[in-house]
Design brief:
Helix content: 10-25%
Strand content: 15-25%
CATH superfamily of the largest domain: Immunoglobulins
Structural class: alpha+beta
CATH architecture of the largest domain: Sandwich
Number of strands: 11
Shape: rod-shaped
Radius of gyration: 75 Å
Number of domains: 2
Length: 269
Amino acid sequence: MMGDSVADSQSIRWRKVLCGVSWAAHRLTKAAVCRLVAVTTAVTLLTGCGVFGRGEPTRTPVPTFTPTPILVVVPAGSEPADAETVVAAVPPEPVAPPPTDTPQPPPTATPEPPTSTPTVTLTATPEPTATPTIEPTPTASPDYGFILETAQKFPTESLAPNVVRIYAYIYSPTEFGLEGYSLSVRHNGAELAVDQQSTGGLPRVTRDAPGPYSRFTNLTAIFVETQAGDWVVQLADADGNPAGPPATFQLSSDEETRELYVRYRLEGG
C-alpha cells in the first residue's frame, strides 16, 4: 500500500508538469497562429487587389503550425514548477569568451653573412729595359784648306727688297787677298750660279766710310731672289770643289739685314 501511494503521488506530480508544459505551449502556439493568420490575410488582400478583374487566383495553402513539446527532466523528490518557471529554466546558449591577445615574441634580427674581402693580387711591375745608348759614329770632317773665321749679317743701305748681297774675304796672313776662288750659294736648297772670283793683293772694304759694318772683301756677289728662307754660303776652289766649311743664314720676308759676310783664312798660311 505504501508503494502504491508513492507511485500515485509521483504520477500526480508528472501530470501537473505536463499540464504546465502543455499550457505554455498552447499560449505560444496561439500567439504564433494569430500572427500567421494576420500575415496570410494581408497577403490574400494584396493578391486579390492585384488580380482584380482577372481569373480566379490560385490559393496558397496555409501551413499548419504544430507545436513541439519541450521535455524538462525534473529530478526525483523535487516539486514541479509552473509552466513559466519551466520555460525560463531552459539554459541560454553559451557565450564565447572574448578573444585574448596573445603577446607576439619580438622579431629576431637575422645576422647578415659577413662580406668577403676581395684579395688584392699584387702584380710585379716589370722593370724598364735599359735602352742601349748608341754612340754616334764619328764622321771624318772634310780636309778643307781654309778655316771659316766669321759669318755675319749687316743691314743694307741701298738694296731693294728681295735683293741679297754676299761679301767674302779669302786671304792668307802672309799674302793678304788670294785670287782664283769662288762661292757656292744655295737658297732653300737650290743652287745659285756665281760667276765672280776673288782677287789677290790688297782687299777693298764693304763700306766707303769707316764704321761698325766695314769689312775687308775681295769677292762680291748680288742675287735677286725672294729673300725669305735658308741661305748656305761655302768657299769653292777654281774647279768648284768645296774649300772651306759652309755658313748658313736665315732671312725673313721683311728683314733688312740682307748683306751677308764670310771670311776664310788659309790654314797654315
